[in-house]
Design goal:
Strand content: 15-25%
Structural class: alpha+beta
Number of strands: 22
Helix content: 40-55%
Oligomer: single chain
Distance between the termini: 81 Å
Number of helices: 27
Largest sheet: 6 strands, mixed
Length: about 700
């Protein structure tokens, strides 16, 4: 496949690039520097650079070119052109994006350490530590040393360098773009391999860094290599559309007239769709309409003008409400800001519109490149301690990626995890309940497990559950943008993740940590049931002290404070099913033999007897300390030692366990039911509070015991 067949920018743009490349090649061969003048080969680069940075010092570029040209002298590309044309072309790409001088200097030198005798120390001595860092970041690792792991380990090294200076990735993207432009000289199988890596890794990175200009061209070049037939069809549609008058021109003029009458100063442009965008639109909509080959781009001076334009468009035309998106109030995670809308004009033509300021447009097109040197402020002063190389523009997704890559030494797992991480094209922000914990940026679809590992690292192994927006949630709960999350950890760290966590962990950081913990478990510990949640049988019963002699279905209560005012002198017993104690509202029911059984008013048995026509008797309680029984149900998140901690809390309150049951865990939750004997029933509220304070317990309530 020829370079012309893969170029996405049209025949005229391709010829201009080829001509410029040939001129640079001739200048590289024959041009010389006289009396410190710029060599002819970089004269055009310098002109483009000065358009963005009028006061730039070009002497550094001159010296970098001379070093690169002498180092690469005699080397040629597979196309036969002098090798120096490649770093020149990469530098020109970055200059057109507005990159500052340090980035251009490093791009001229980016292959010298990898392919020539020049060393990093020589680069650092001649051009400083920043240029040295950038060149080192894009230098590939040798296959001789790393074998099949060379490519993933090179990307790991590059990403680590990007973490301290995003300009590393800018140079790599420009380098790959020029290589993709000239890919036609390689074997088809190598073209496909490079195109797949570009699609899976570099294009998502360009998207995340907001460098849309590079991203869209890379997409078209990859599309041409991997799907040549579909690419040819989309190109044919674009050529056919270009031969007819563009109906968007009339729509654009109508918009200009509306904005002039409203007194809004704006530029209205027609922004053609690139090849892959046309292909996607055709697959989504079927046949494309005459206005589907481009969008209107409206540029204004201030943020407020964006909304003024939006108001005029929605007032004077028929808006398509479903197409409206506000990325100014809520920018994308890659710094992108714009208003998106669509409308129908008087002729029924549908036009899609982007509204943004000139500054937003610059950032939307060039992303981090437009931000310049991350270590210096706009006035050129140092932005902080250079030794830390702390990039204030580093996005959350990059910080997250850098964190988990440290935990994964295996290059194959790192490579597959990197592709999975980059496959998510949207990010959410979740917040903590505590003011001292900052927000978390997570990929869309992340769960509470992902939030736990993002917040606590390895300590998340002890996570028992979470509260999402103040409500208890399972660890599999998928989080939404803006959720408030509080993570519940076992204080002793004794619990650990279960294999099921891998089913709903999305982020590589969580998956790697869980997998490593599971792999490290010894065979003796696998399958061992937690003491707090035995898995055998439908219900586990915990041995309890023997019941007092003579105790039957009810407990004699004459000495326990129950007074039946309607049947003085009758034997009184407390029902075991609901274990009433002072000051519960209670009802009495006469049973065989003339005894009275006392139930809590809300007991299902009492409700059933009243419904059957049984006449209840009024029950009161004597004053003073009254001994009693009570059945409590504790709802908790399963963990080791939970049963021991709960029984310890019960004993500390002076209560004795008469009977206990522990149900099997369901979705990490367990239920404990205790029948307790209290020396003083008035201490029941304090006992329940003490049980709720046990880590992992989220509710304690009075219960009706269903079995003995």
């Amino acid at each position: 496949m020829s370079a012309e067949a893969t170029a996405p920018r049209g025949r005229r743009g391709h010829r201009r690039d080829v001509l410029r490349l040939r001129q640079l090649g001739r200048a590289a061969l024959f041009g010389t520097a006289v009396n410190n003048r710029l060599p002819d080969a970089i004269e055009h680069v310098a002109q483009v650079h000065r358009r963005h940075h009028p006061g730039a010092d070009l002497d550094t570029l001159r010296r970098a070119y001379l070093l690169a040209e002498s180092a690469h002298r005699g080397q040629t590309r597979k196309s036969g052109e002098p090798y120096i044309t490649h770093p020149l072309a990469v530098t020109l790409i970055l200059a057109e994006l507005g990159a500052e001088t340090t980035t251009l200097t490093a791009s001229l030198l980016h292959d010298t350490v990898e392919d020539t005798e020049v060393t990093l120390d020589q680069v650092g001595a001649a051009f400083g530590d920043e240029v040295r860092h950038l060149v080192d970041g894009v230098t590939k690792l040798e296959k001789v040393d790393y074998g099949a792991a060379a490519e993933p380990e090179t990307f790991r090294k590059m990403l680590v360098a990007t973490g301290s200076d995003v300009r590393v990735m800018s140079i790599k993207l420009a380098d790959r773009l020029h290589n993709m432009r000239t890919l036609g000289v390689m074997r088809p199988e190598k073209q496909a391999r490079i195109a797949r890596v570009t699609r899976d890794v570099l294009i998502p990175l360009a998207e995340r860094l907001g460098v849309q200009t590079l991203k869209t061209e890379l997409e078209d070049l990859v599309f041409a290599v991997l799907h040549p037939e579909e690419h040819a069809q989309a190109r044919a549609l674009i050529r056919e559309h270009a031969q007819r008058p563009d109906p968007l021109a009339a729509v654009a003029e109508s918009v200009r007239e509306v904005l002039r009458e409203a007194g809004v100063t704006a530029e209205v442009h027609i922004r053609p769709r690139h090849v892959l965008s046309v292909h996607r639109a055709r697959r989504k909509r079927g046949e494309l309409g005459p206005c589907d080959y481009g969008r209107l781009l409206i540029l204004v001076a201030e943020d407020a003008d964006c909304y003024a334009v939006l108001g005029e468009l929605h007032t004077c035309f028929t808006p398509v409400v479903s197409e409206f998106k506000d990325f100014i109030a809520a920018p994308k995670f890659n710094l992108y800001q714009s208003l998106h809308t669509a409308f129908l004009d008087d002729g029924g033509r549908l036009a899609e519109v982007l509204v943004r300021t000139h500054r937003m447009h610059s950032v939307a097109e060039t992303g981090v490149v437009a931000l310049g040197d991350p270590h210096r402020s706009a006035d050129g002063e140092a932005a902080g301690d250079d030794s830390e190389r702390a990039d204030p523009t580093r996005p959350g997704w990059l910080s997250r990626l850098l964190e988990w890559q440290r935990q994964e030494p295996d290059p194959d797992t790192f490579w597959s995890s990197l592709r999975d991480e980059l496959a998510s094209d949207r990010e959410i922000t979740v917040f903590a309940e505590r003011a001292d914990e900052g927000p978390l940026q997570l990929p869309a679809g992340a769960t509470c497990v992902d939030a736990a590992y993002a917040r606590h690292g390895k300590a998340a192994h002890a996570c028992l559950g979470a509260r999402v927006n103040s409500r208890l949630a399972s660890l599999r709960t998928v989080l939404r943008d803006g959720d408030t999350v509080s993570l519940l950890l076992a204080p002793d760290g004794g619990s650990g993740p279960s294999p099921e966590w891998l089913d709903y962990a999305v982020t590589p950081a969580a998956r790697i940590a869980i997998r490593r913990w599971l792999d490290a478990r010894t065979p003796e510990t696998e399958g061992e049931p937690e003491r707090s949640a035995p898995a055998a049988g439908p219900r586990a019963r915990v041995p309890a002290p023997a019941a007092e002699p003579g105790a039957g279905p009810e407990t004699a209560a004459e000495a326990q404070g129950a007074v039946v005012t309607d049947a003085p002198g009758a034997p009184v017993r407390l029902a075991r099913c609901c274990t009433p104690v002072p000051p519960d509202r209670a009802l009495g029911f006469t049973v065989r033999g003339g005894a009275v059984t006392v139930h809590r008013e809300s007991c299902p048995s009492a409700v059933r007897m009243v419904g059957a026509g049984r006449q209840p008797l009024a029950v009161g309680w004597r004053s003073g300390a009254v001994e009693g029984r009570v059945t409590l149900r504790a709802e908790a998140l399963g963990r080791a030692e939970l049963l021991a901690d709960l029984t310890e809390a019960i004993a500390a309150q002076g209560a004795a366990v008469v009977h206990a049951e522990v149900e099997p865990p369901r979705e990490q939750r367990v239920r404990h039911t205790y029948t307790l004997r209290l020396p003083d029933a008035s201490r029941l509220p304090g006992l329940m509070r003490a049980m709720r304070r046990v880590p992992g317990v989220y509710d304690v309530s009075r219960a009706v015991r269903t079995g003995s």
